[in-house]
Write a structure and sequence with these properties.
CATH architecture: Up-down Bundle
Structural class: mainly alpha
Number of strands: 0
CATH topology: Methane Monooxygenase Hydroxylase, Chain G, domain 1
Order of helices and strands: HHH
Oligomer: single chain
Amino acid sequence: MPNSPSAEKRLRQSMKRRMHNRITKKVIKTLMKRTLEEVASNDLEKASESFKQAAAKIDKAGARRVLHPNTAARRKSRLARSYNAAIAKAQQTKQPESSGA
């Protein structure tokens, strides 16, 4: 327990920041999971929208130091790699059909 009024205030501030950071991290994890699930189910239109939301939230968290900037970059990169791989795979499956006809 804090012994001085300033220590009490610091405790209140740190608790408030901690809750805000936890909520932000949870939202990021949820958006990333949603994007990966949509990529896995080949729903690329929904995945596109989810990827944009997740990337924006990750960028903002990195800029505000909720996440370390390198951690934010790594997560965004991994998400982009899986999303782009799904798009490439979808384009590959469309090309043989059109050239065979």
